[in-house]
Amino acid sequence: MAVDLKSLKKLESLPASALSEPRSDSDRLVVLVKLREGAHQPSYISPRAHMGPQIFSAEICAGDLQRMESDPSIESVSVTQRLPLIE
Length: 87
What we know:
Number of strands: 7
CATH architecture: 2-Layer Sandwich
Strand order of the largest sheet: 2-7-4-6-5
Number of helices: 2
Helix content: 10-25%
CATH class: Alpha Beta
Largest sheet: 5 strands, mixed
Number of domains: 1
Radius of gyration: 13 Å
Distance between the termini: 37 Å
Structural class: mainly beta
């Protein structure tokens, strides 16, 4: 099943590459997650790195975005962009 990234209200600043093709539920994405003040990290997300008490990065399946959309502890999510390789 394809995930419609444009329909997710908590998703910030989508890179054009994210909108260019539909994402299946199993596609892997690296995201930055911002938690609401005083909220705890959801148990279904494994962080890669913390940038402070309320912000962390994680690698998730695109299908998890819908679960994150309905999670009251999450304030916003940003899909990271892949940068071109510099030789």
